[in-house]
Amino acid sequence: MDRSSGDRRLAAESSQQPADAAPTLVSRSRELEDVSFGAIVDTTAESRVQWATPDGLEVVGRGVAARVTASGPDRFEQIRTRADRTFDGLEHDGPQVARPRAFGGFSFHDEHEPGPPWTGFGAAAFVVPQVLVVRSEAETWLTAVATQSEEATARLERWSERVAELPAMQPSGISPGVVSTRRTTSPEAWTEQVETALERIDRDELTKVVLAQSLSVALEESVDVSGTLERLRRQYPNCYRFLIGHDTGGTFFGAPPERLVSKRGKRVETEALAGSVPRGDMPEEDEAHADRMRDSEKVQREHGLVVESIRDQLEPLAREFSIDEQTIRRLATIQHLQTPITATLDGDRHVLELVEALHPTPAVGGVPPAAAWETIRDTETFDRGWYAAPVGWFDADGDGEFAVGIRSGVATDETVTLFAGNGIVADSDPADEWDEVQLKFRPILDELR
Ligand SMILES: C=C(O[C@H]1C=CC=C(C(=O)O)[C@@H]1O)C(=O)O
Fold first, then answer.
1. Three-state SS string across the chain, please?
2. Is 13 an annotated catalytic residue?
3. Does the CB atom of residue 364 touch ligand 1 within 6 A?
4. Can you identify the CATH homologous superfamily of domain 178-222+257-448?
5. For position 170, what pLDDT does the model report?
Protein backbone atom coordinates (compact mmCIF):
# COMPACT_ATOMS: atom_id res chain seq x y z
CA MET A 1 0.00 0.00 0.00
CA ASP A 2 1.56 3.26 -1.14
CA ARG A 3 0.46 5.67 1.58
CA SER A 4 2.05 9.08 1.92
CA SER A 5 3.78 10.02 5.15
CA GLY A 6 1.09 12.67 5.75
CA ASP A 7 -1.64 10.12 5.47
CA ARG A 8 0.19 7.65 7.68
CA ARG A 9 0.48 10.37 10.29
CA LEU A 10 -3.23 11.22 10.05
CA ALA A 11 -4.19 7.57 10.40
CA ALA A 12 -1.83 7.18 13.35
CA GLU A 13 -3.29 10.24 15.08
CA SER A 14 -6.79 8.93 14.72
CA SER A 15 -5.92 5.42 15.87
CA GLN A 16 -4.05 6.84 18.88
CA GLN A 17 -7.20 8.61 20.05
CA PRO A 18 -8.50 6.24 22.71
CA ALA A 19 -12.12 5.43 22.00
CA ASP A 20 -13.55 7.41 24.92
CA ALA A 21 -10.89 9.92 25.84
CA ALA A 22 -11.15 12.91 23.48
CA PRO A 23 -10.18 16.00 25.53
CA THR A 24 -12.95 18.56 26.07
CA LEU A 25 -12.74 21.59 23.79
CA VAL A 26 -12.94 25.14 25.14
CA SER A 27 -13.42 28.23 22.98
CA ARG A 28 -13.25 31.97 23.51
CA SER A 29 -14.52 34.58 21.01
CA ARG A 30 -14.14 38.30 20.46
CA GLU A 31 -15.65 40.66 17.88
CA LEU A 32 -13.16 42.09 15.37
CA GLU A 33 -12.81 44.94 12.96
CA ASP A 34 -12.84 43.56 9.44
CA VAL A 35 -9.73 41.69 8.35
CA SER A 36 -8.32 40.06 5.22
CA PHE A 37 -9.35 36.41 5.35
CA GLY A 38 -6.68 35.56 2.79
CA ALA A 39 -3.92 36.88 5.05
CA ILE A 40 -5.05 34.54 7.85
CA VAL A 41 -4.72 31.41 5.73
CA ASP A 42 -1.56 32.64 4.01
CA THR A 43 0.54 29.69 5.20
CA THR A 44 1.36 26.23 3.95
CA ALA A 45 3.05 25.19 7.18
CA GLU A 46 -0.19 24.63 9.07
CA SER A 47 -3.60 23.13 8.48
CA ARG A 48 -5.93 25.78 7.03
CA VAL A 49 -9.51 26.00 5.82
CA GLN A 50 -11.60 28.59 4.06
CA TRP A 51 -15.34 28.36 3.43
CA ALA A 52 -17.81 30.83 1.95
CA THR A 53 -21.45 30.38 0.98
CA PRO A 54 -23.52 32.21 -1.65
CA ASP A 55 -25.63 33.70 1.17
CA GLY A 56 -22.67 35.49 2.76
CA LEU A 57 -21.18 33.34 5.54
CA GLU A 58 -17.38 33.38 5.36
CA VAL A 59 -15.04 31.42 7.61
CA VAL A 60 -11.30 30.88 7.72
CA GLY A 61 -9.52 28.58 10.13
CA ARG A 62 -5.96 27.72 11.04
CA GLY A 63 -4.24 25.04 13.08
CA VAL A 64 -5.75 21.91 14.58
CA ALA A 65 -7.56 21.88 17.93
CA ALA A 66 -9.05 18.45 17.07
CA ARG A 67 -8.91 16.18 14.08
CA VAL A 68 -11.17 13.25 13.15
CA THR A 69 -10.41 10.88 10.31
CA ALA A 70 -12.01 7.68 9.04
CA SER A 71 -11.88 5.23 6.16
CA GLY A 72 -13.91 2.44 4.62
CA PRO A 73 -17.61 2.05 3.86
CA ASP A 74 -18.78 3.22 7.33
CA ARG A 75 -16.59 6.35 7.26
CA PHE A 76 -19.61 8.71 7.59
CA GLU A 77 -20.73 7.00 10.79
CA GLN A 78 -17.17 6.79 12.13
CA ILE A 79 -16.71 10.53 11.66
CA ARG A 80 -20.05 11.20 13.35
CA THR A 81 -19.20 9.05 16.36
CA ARG A 82 -15.69 10.49 16.72
CA ALA A 83 -16.94 14.04 16.25
CA ASP A 84 -19.62 13.55 18.92
CA ARG A 85 -16.84 12.57 21.30
CA THR A 86 -14.74 15.54 20.22
CA PHE A 87 -17.56 18.03 20.74
CA ASP A 88 -18.88 16.36 23.91
CA GLY A 89 -18.71 18.89 26.78
CA LEU A 90 -17.64 21.74 24.46
CA GLU A 91 -17.52 24.99 26.40
CA HIS A 92 -18.11 27.87 23.97
CA ASP A 93 -17.96 31.41 25.30
CA GLY A 94 -19.25 33.59 22.45
CA PRO A 95 -22.16 34.03 20.06
CA GLN A 96 -23.59 31.12 18.07
CA VAL A 97 -22.12 32.38 14.77
CA ALA A 98 -18.58 32.15 16.22
CA ARG A 99 -18.96 28.59 17.58
CA PRO A 100 -16.29 25.98 16.81
CA ARG A 101 -17.05 23.93 13.72
CA ALA A 102 -15.35 20.94 12.09
CA PHE A 103 -14.33 21.53 8.47
CA GLY A 104 -13.35 18.89 5.95
CA GLY A 105 -14.75 16.35 3.60
CA PHE A 106 -14.74 12.92 2.07
CA SER A 107 -13.24 11.21 -0.94
CA PHE A 108 -15.63 10.32 -3.75
CA HIS A 109 -15.01 6.56 -3.38
CA ASP A 110 -15.05 5.00 0.09
CA GLU A 111 -12.04 2.77 -0.56
CA HIS A 112 -9.86 5.73 -1.55
CA GLU A 113 -6.10 5.41 -0.88
CA PRO A 114 -4.43 8.78 -1.31
CA GLY A 115 -1.51 9.14 -3.70
CA PRO A 116 -0.34 12.22 -5.65
CA PRO A 117 -1.93 14.69 -6.20
CA TRP A 118 -4.16 13.66 -3.27
CA THR A 119 -1.38 13.08 -0.73
CA GLY A 120 -2.75 13.97 2.70
CA PHE A 121 -6.40 13.61 1.63
CA GLY A 122 -7.71 10.36 3.11
CA ALA A 123 -11.19 8.87 2.77
CA ALA A 124 -12.62 11.27 5.38
CA ALA A 125 -10.95 14.02 7.40
CA PHE A 126 -12.25 16.92 9.48
CA VAL A 127 -10.45 19.51 11.55
CA VAL A 128 -11.70 21.83 14.30
CA PRO A 129 -9.29 24.75 13.77
CA GLN A 130 -7.45 26.37 16.69
CA VAL A 131 -8.27 29.80 15.30
CA LEU A 132 -11.43 30.71 13.40
CA VAL A 133 -12.51 34.02 11.89
CA VAL A 134 -16.17 34.22 10.87
CA ARG A 135 -17.93 36.95 8.94
CA SER A 136 -21.70 36.94 8.78
CA GLU A 137 -24.18 39.78 8.34
CA ALA A 138 -21.51 42.49 8.69
CA GLU A 139 -20.14 41.09 11.95
CA THR A 140 -16.68 39.55 12.18
CA TRP A 141 -15.68 37.30 15.08
CA LEU A 142 -12.41 35.72 16.14
CA THR A 143 -12.61 32.39 17.99
CA ALA A 144 -9.75 30.54 19.65
CA VAL A 145 -10.18 26.83 20.45
CA ALA A 146 -8.03 24.74 22.81
CA THR A 147 -8.32 21.93 25.32
CA GLN A 148 -7.69 24.21 28.35
CA SER A 149 -9.45 27.50 29.06
CA GLU A 150 -6.17 29.35 29.84
CA GLU A 151 -4.77 28.17 26.52
CA ALA A 152 -7.90 29.33 24.66
CA THR A 153 -7.74 32.77 26.34
CA ALA A 154 -4.02 33.14 25.60
CA ARG A 155 -4.57 32.10 21.97
CA LEU A 156 -7.39 34.62 21.63
CA GLU A 157 -5.12 37.41 22.97
CA ARG A 158 -2.25 36.41 20.69
CA TRP A 159 -4.43 36.27 17.60
CA SER A 160 -6.27 39.51 18.44
CA GLU A 161 -2.88 41.24 18.30
CA ARG A 162 -1.80 39.39 15.20
CA VAL A 163 -5.02 40.09 13.33
CA ALA A 164 -4.85 43.81 14.19
CA GLU A 165 -1.65 43.98 12.16
CA LEU A 166 -3.10 42.27 9.08
CA PRO A 167 -4.59 44.23 6.16
CA ALA A 168 -8.36 44.75 6.17
CA MET A 169 -8.76 44.15 2.43
CA GLN A 170 -8.57 40.70 0.88
CA PRO A 171 -5.70 40.62 -1.64
CA SER A 172 -6.81 39.02 -4.89
CA GLY A 173 -3.24 38.29 -6.01
CA ILE A 174 -2.24 37.79 -9.60
CA SER A 175 -2.68 34.75 -11.81
CA PRO A 176 0.35 32.46 -11.68
CA GLY A 177 0.38 31.94 -15.47
CA VAL A 178 0.10 28.59 -17.25
CA VAL A 179 3.16 26.87 -18.77
CA SER A 180 1.36 23.82 -20.16
CA THR A 181 -1.65 21.54 -19.64
CA ARG A 182 -1.84 17.76 -19.75
CA ARG A 183 -5.08 15.80 -20.12
CA THR A 184 -5.77 12.42 -18.55
CA THR A 185 -8.29 11.74 -21.27
CA SER A 186 -7.80 12.43 -24.98
CA PRO A 187 -10.85 13.24 -27.16
CA GLU A 188 -10.52 9.74 -28.72
CA ALA A 189 -10.37 8.02 -25.32
CA TRP A 190 -13.36 10.12 -24.18
CA THR A 191 -15.42 9.06 -27.18
CA GLU A 192 -14.62 5.42 -26.42
CA GLN A 193 -15.52 5.86 -22.74
CA VAL A 194 -18.82 7.54 -23.53
CA GLU A 195 -19.65 4.87 -26.11
CA THR A 196 -18.92 2.11 -23.59
CA ALA A 197 -21.23 3.84 -21.10
CA LEU A 198 -23.89 4.17 -23.81
CA GLU A 199 -23.66 0.42 -24.52
CA ARG A 200 -24.28 -0.27 -20.80
CA ILE A 201 -27.23 2.12 -20.93
CA ASP A 202 -28.49 0.31 -24.05
CA ARG A 203 -28.27 -3.03 -22.23
CA ASP A 204 -30.36 -1.49 -19.38
CA GLU A 205 -27.52 -1.98 -16.89
CA LEU A 206 -27.41 1.74 -16.34
CA THR A 207 -29.63 4.80 -16.84
CA LYS A 208 -27.13 7.58 -16.19
CA VAL A 209 -23.45 7.88 -15.32
CA VAL A 210 -21.32 10.98 -14.76
CA LEU A 211 -17.92 10.51 -16.38
CA ALA A 212 -15.14 12.93 -15.54
CA GLN A 213 -11.70 13.97 -16.75
CA SER A 214 -8.75 15.61 -15.09
CA LEU A 215 -6.47 18.30 -16.45
CA SER A 216 -3.04 18.83 -14.96
CA VAL A 217 -1.95 22.47 -15.29
CA ALA A 218 1.76 23.33 -14.94
CA LEU A 219 2.15 26.89 -13.64
CA GLU A 220 4.85 29.52 -13.94
CA GLU A 221 4.88 29.83 -10.15
CA SER A 222 3.00 28.41 -7.15
CA VAL A 223 -0.60 29.46 -7.01
CA ASP A 224 -1.92 31.77 -4.27
CA VAL A 225 -5.04 29.71 -3.59
CA SER A 226 -6.75 32.23 -1.35
CA GLY A 227 -6.14 35.02 -3.89
CA THR A 228 -7.55 32.75 -6.61
CA LEU A 229 -10.66 32.19 -4.49
CA GLU A 230 -11.04 35.95 -4.08
CA ARG A 231 -10.92 36.38 -7.87
CA LEU A 232 -13.44 33.53 -8.21
CA ARG A 233 -15.73 35.35 -5.76
CA ARG A 234 -15.82 38.29 -8.14
CA GLN A 235 -16.60 36.10 -11.16
CA TYR A 236 -18.87 33.57 -9.43
CA PRO A 237 -20.50 35.45 -6.52
CA ASN A 238 -23.39 32.98 -6.32
CA CYS A 239 -21.14 29.93 -5.80
CA TYR A 240 -19.58 28.37 -2.73
CA ARG A 241 -15.84 28.82 -2.24
CA PHE A 242 -13.65 26.48 -0.25
CA LEU A 243 -10.02 25.70 0.50
CA ILE A 244 -8.72 22.77 2.52
CA GLY A 245 -5.00 22.51 3.13
CA HIS A 246 -3.47 19.99 5.49
CA ASP A 247 -0.06 20.63 7.02
CA THR A 248 1.39 18.24 4.45
CA GLY A 249 0.27 17.58 0.89
CA GLY A 250 -1.65 19.84 -1.46
CA THR A 251 -4.53 22.29 -1.15
CA PHE A 252 -7.97 21.30 -2.42
CA PHE A 253 -10.03 24.29 -3.50
CA GLY A 254 -12.91 25.28 -5.71
CA ALA A 255 -16.00 27.35 -6.42
CA PRO A 256 -18.84 24.82 -6.66
CA PRO A 257 -22.30 26.00 -7.65
CA GLU A 258 -23.93 22.94 -6.10
CA ARG A 259 -25.18 22.59 -2.54
CA LEU A 260 -25.24 18.99 -1.37
CA VAL A 261 -27.19 19.77 1.78
CA SER A 262 -27.57 22.30 4.57
CA LYS A 263 -29.25 21.47 7.86
CA ARG A 264 -30.26 23.75 10.71
CA GLY A 265 -32.35 22.08 13.39
CA LYS A 266 -34.93 20.06 11.47
CA ARG A 267 -34.85 22.28 8.36
CA VAL A 268 -33.00 20.86 5.34
CA GLU A 269 -32.18 22.49 2.01
CA THR A 270 -30.73 20.74 -0.98
CA GLU A 271 -31.05 20.91 -4.76
CA ALA A 272 -30.79 19.06 -8.02
CA LEU A 273 -28.28 20.69 -10.36
CA ALA A 274 -27.77 18.90 -13.66
CA GLY A 275 -27.94 19.90 -17.31
CA SER A 276 -25.50 22.41 -18.76
CA VAL A 277 -25.31 24.88 -21.66
CA PRO A 278 -22.89 27.78 -22.30
CA ARG A 279 -23.66 31.45 -21.66
CA GLY A 280 -24.39 33.53 -24.75
CA ASP A 281 -22.56 36.76 -25.59
CA MET A 282 -25.84 38.62 -26.09
CA PRO A 283 -29.04 38.31 -23.98
CA GLU A 284 -30.98 36.69 -26.87
CA GLU A 285 -28.28 34.09 -27.42
CA ASP A 286 -28.10 33.45 -23.67
CA GLU A 287 -31.86 32.95 -23.52
CA ALA A 288 -31.77 30.69 -26.60
CA HIS A 289 -29.23 28.40 -24.89
CA ALA A 290 -31.39 28.31 -21.73
CA ASP A 291 -34.54 27.54 -23.78
CA ARG A 292 -32.75 24.76 -25.61
CA MET A 293 -31.79 23.21 -22.25
CA ARG A 294 -35.26 23.64 -20.75
CA ASP A 295 -36.91 22.12 -23.85
CA SER A 296 -34.47 19.24 -24.28
CA GLU A 297 -36.14 15.93 -23.49
CA LYS A 298 -32.68 14.42 -22.86
CA VAL A 299 -31.60 17.11 -20.38
CA GLN A 300 -34.94 17.01 -18.58
CA ARG A 301 -34.63 13.23 -18.24
CA GLU A 302 -31.07 13.60 -16.91
CA HIS A 303 -32.18 16.30 -14.45
CA GLY A 304 -35.30 14.38 -13.42
CA LEU A 305 -33.17 11.40 -12.39
CA VAL A 306 -31.32 13.61 -9.91
CA VAL A 307 -34.56 15.02 -8.44
CA GLU A 308 -36.05 11.52 -8.10
CA SER A 309 -32.96 10.12 -6.47
CA ILE A 310 -32.79 12.97 -3.91
CA ARG A 311 -36.47 12.35 -3.13
CA ASP A 312 -35.85 8.62 -2.66
CA GLN A 313 -32.90 9.29 -0.31
CA LEU A 314 -34.39 12.11 1.73
CA GLU A 315 -38.12 11.39 1.96
CA PRO A 316 -37.71 8.46 4.39
CA LEU A 317 -35.90 10.82 6.81
CA ALA A 318 -38.41 13.67 6.49
CA ARG A 319 -41.78 14.68 7.92
CA GLU A 320 -42.31 17.14 5.06
CA PHE A 321 -40.64 17.18 1.68
CA SER A 322 -41.06 19.76 -1.05
CA ILE A 323 -39.72 20.03 -4.59
CA ASP A 324 -39.72 23.65 -5.74
CA GLU A 325 -40.02 25.02 -9.24
CA GLN A 326 -37.22 24.35 -11.70
CA THR A 327 -35.07 27.40 -12.52
CA ILE A 328 -32.03 28.29 -14.61
CA ARG A 329 -28.83 28.77 -12.61
CA ARG A 330 -26.68 31.29 -14.51
CA LEU A 331 -22.95 31.38 -13.76
CA ALA A 332 -20.34 33.50 -15.57
CA THR A 333 -19.41 30.83 -18.11
CA ILE A 334 -22.15 28.19 -17.93
CA GLN A 335 -25.83 27.76 -17.06
CA HIS A 336 -27.53 24.80 -15.41
CA LEU A 337 -31.01 23.48 -14.68
CA GLN A 338 -31.65 23.74 -10.96
CA THR A 339 -34.47 22.44 -8.77
CA PRO A 340 -34.43 23.61 -5.12
CA ILE A 341 -35.60 20.98 -2.61
CA THR A 342 -36.51 21.51 1.06
CA ALA A 343 -37.49 19.13 3.83
CA THR A 344 -38.38 19.05 7.50
CA LEU A 345 -36.75 16.13 9.27
CA ASP A 346 -38.72 13.52 11.17
CA GLY A 347 -36.53 13.87 14.28
CA ASP A 348 -33.03 14.78 15.48
CA ARG A 349 -30.48 13.87 12.86
CA HIS A 350 -26.86 14.74 12.20
CA VAL A 351 -26.08 16.52 8.92
CA LEU A 352 -23.64 13.69 8.16
CA GLU A 353 -26.59 11.26 8.02
CA LEU A 354 -27.99 13.39 5.21
CA VAL A 355 -24.58 13.67 3.54
CA GLU A 356 -24.26 9.90 3.64
CA ALA A 357 -27.76 9.40 2.25
CA LEU A 358 -27.21 11.86 -0.60
CA HIS A 359 -23.63 11.14 -1.69
CA PRO A 360 -23.18 10.73 -4.57
CA THR A 361 -26.26 12.30 -6.11
CA PRO A 362 -26.69 11.31 -9.78
CA ALA A 363 -25.39 14.83 -10.58
CA VAL A 364 -21.92 13.37 -9.95
CA GLY A 365 -22.50 9.58 -9.76
CA GLY A 366 -25.38 8.04 -11.64
CA VAL A 367 -28.41 5.72 -11.65
CA PRO A 368 -28.55 3.04 -10.37
CA PRO A 369 -25.82 4.12 -7.95
CA ALA A 370 -23.95 0.79 -7.75
CA ALA A 371 -23.77 0.29 -11.52
CA ALA A 372 -22.72 3.93 -11.97
CA TRP A 373 -19.92 3.59 -9.38
CA GLU A 374 -18.73 0.46 -11.11
CA THR A 375 -18.77 2.17 -14.50
CA ILE A 376 -16.83 5.15 -13.11
CA ARG A 377 -14.28 2.79 -11.56
CA ASP A 378 -13.91 0.72 -14.75
CA THR A 379 -13.71 3.75 -17.02
CA GLU A 380 -11.88 6.67 -15.47
CA THR A 381 -8.09 6.55 -15.64
CA PHE A 382 -7.39 9.04 -12.85
CA ASP A 383 -8.11 9.28 -9.14
CA ARG A 384 -11.19 11.41 -8.32
CA GLY A 385 -9.85 11.88 -4.80
CA TRP A 386 -12.09 14.50 -3.15
CA TYR A 387 -13.48 15.81 -6.46
CA ALA A 388 -17.30 15.58 -6.66
CA ALA A 389 -17.49 14.53 -3.01
CA PRO A 390 -18.99 16.29 0.04
CA VAL A 391 -16.96 19.22 1.41
CA GLY A 392 -18.15 21.49 4.21
CA TRP A 393 -18.64 21.74 7.96
CA PHE A 394 -20.69 20.55 10.92
CA ASP A 395 -20.99 21.71 14.52
CA ALA A 396 -21.57 20.23 17.98
CA ASP A 397 -25.37 20.13 17.38
CA GLY A 398 -25.00 18.16 14.14
CA ASP A 399 -26.02 21.16 12.04
CA GLY A 400 -23.92 22.03 9.02
CA GLU A 401 -23.62 22.66 5.33
CA PHE A 402 -21.95 20.74 2.51
CA ALA A 403 -21.24 21.60 -1.11
CA VAL A 404 -20.45 19.10 -3.84
CA GLY A 405 -16.70 19.45 -4.53
CA ILE A 406 -17.00 20.25 -8.25
CA ARG A 407 -15.43 23.15 -10.24
CA SER A 408 -12.43 22.25 -8.14
CA GLY A 409 -8.75 21.41 -8.25
CA VAL A 410 -5.88 20.36 -6.05
CA ALA A 411 -2.80 22.58 -5.92
CA THR A 412 0.59 21.00 -5.26
CA ASP A 413 3.76 23.10 -5.71
CA GLU A 414 3.61 24.53 -9.22
CA THR A 415 0.80 22.33 -10.51
CA VAL A 416 -2.97 22.46 -10.20
CA THR A 417 -4.92 19.35 -11.14
CA LEU A 418 -8.45 20.22 -12.22
CA PHE A 419 -11.47 17.94 -12.48
CA ALA A 420 -14.74 18.14 -14.41
CA GLY A 421 -17.42 15.72 -15.50
CA ASN A 422 -20.70 15.40 -17.33
CA GLY A 423 -23.82 13.28 -17.10
CA ILE A 424 -24.13 10.60 -19.79
CA VAL A 425 -27.62 9.28 -20.60
CA ALA A 426 -29.14 7.54 -23.65
CA ASP A 427 -28.77 9.89 -26.66
CA SER A 428 -25.64 11.57 -25.26
CA ASP A 429 -23.28 12.64 -28.01
CA PRO A 430 -19.58 12.23 -27.06
CA ALA A 431 -18.54 15.46 -28.82
CA ASP A 432 -21.24 17.56 -27.09
CA GLU A 433 -20.38 16.00 -23.75
CA TRP A 434 -16.70 16.80 -24.35
CA ASP A 435 -17.55 20.46 -24.95
CA GLU A 436 -19.59 20.67 -21.76
CA VAL A 437 -16.76 19.18 -19.70
CA GLN A 438 -14.34 21.80 -21.08
CA LEU A 439 -16.76 24.55 -19.97
CA LYS A 440 -16.54 23.19 -16.42
CA PHE A 441 -12.74 23.45 -16.32
CA ARG A 442 -13.00 27.13 -17.17
CA PRO A 443 -13.84 28.78 -13.82
CA ILE A 444 -10.49 27.84 -12.25
CA LEU A 445 -8.45 27.57 -15.46
CA ASP A 446 -9.37 31.16 -16.42
CA GLU A 447 -8.03 32.38 -13.05
CA LEU A 448 -4.72 30.56 -13.49
CA ARG A 449 -3.89 31.97 -16.94
C1 LIG B 1 -20.04 16.90 -12.59
C2 LIG B 1 -20.03 18.22 -12.73
O3 LIG B 1 -21.18 18.97 -12.84
C4 LIG B 1 -22.46 18.45 -12.47
C5 LIG B 1 -23.26 19.61 -11.99
C6 LIG B 1 -24.00 20.38 -12.88
C7 LIG B 1 -24.22 19.93 -14.19
C8 LIG B 1 -23.80 18.70 -14.59
C9 LIG B 1 -24.12 18.20 -15.97
O10 LIG B 1 -24.71 18.96 -16.75
O11 LIG B 1 -23.73 17.09 -16.30
C12 LIG B 1 -23.12 17.77 -13.66
O13 LIG B 1 -24.11 16.89 -13.22
C14 LIG B 1 -18.78 18.98 -12.76
O15 LIG B 1 -18.82 20.22 -12.78
O16 LIG B 1 -17.68 18.37 -12.74
1. CCCCHHHHHHHHHHHHCCCCCCCCCEEEEEEECCCCHHHHCCCCCCCEEEEECCCCCEEEEECCCEEEEECCCCHHHHHHHHHHHHHCCCEEECCHHHCCCEEEEECCCCCCCCCCCCCCCCCEEEEECCEEEEEECCEEEEEEEECCHHHHHHHHHHHHHHHHCCCCCCCCCCCCCEEEEEECCCHHHHHHHHHHHHHHHHCCCCCEEEEEEEEEEEECCCCCHHHHHHHHHHHCCCCCEEEEECCCCCEEEECCCCEEEEEECCEEEEEEEEEEEECCCCHHHHHHHHHHHHHCHHHHHHHHHHHHHHHHHHHHHEEEEEECCCEEEECCCEEEEEEEEEEEECCCCCHHHHHHHHCCCCCCCEECHHHHHHHHHHHCCCCCCCCCCEEEEECCCCCEEEEECCCEEEEECCEEEEEEEEEEECCCCHHHHHHHHHHHHHHHHHHHC
2. no
3. yes
4. Anthranilate synthase (3.60.120.10)
5. 67
| CATH 3.60.120.10 boundaries in the chain | 178-222+257-448
Residue nearest to atom 10 of ligand 1 (CA): 275
pLDDT digits (tens, 9 = 90+) for 123-155: 999 999 999 999 998 899 999 999 999 999 999
The pTM score is 0.93
Query: pLDDT class for 168, splitting at 50, 70, 90?
Result: confident
- For residue 18, is pLDDT > 90? no
Which ipTM score applies to this complex?
0.97
Q: Ligand 1 pocket, 163 CB below 6 A?
A: no
**Residue 39 scores a pLDDT above 70:** yes
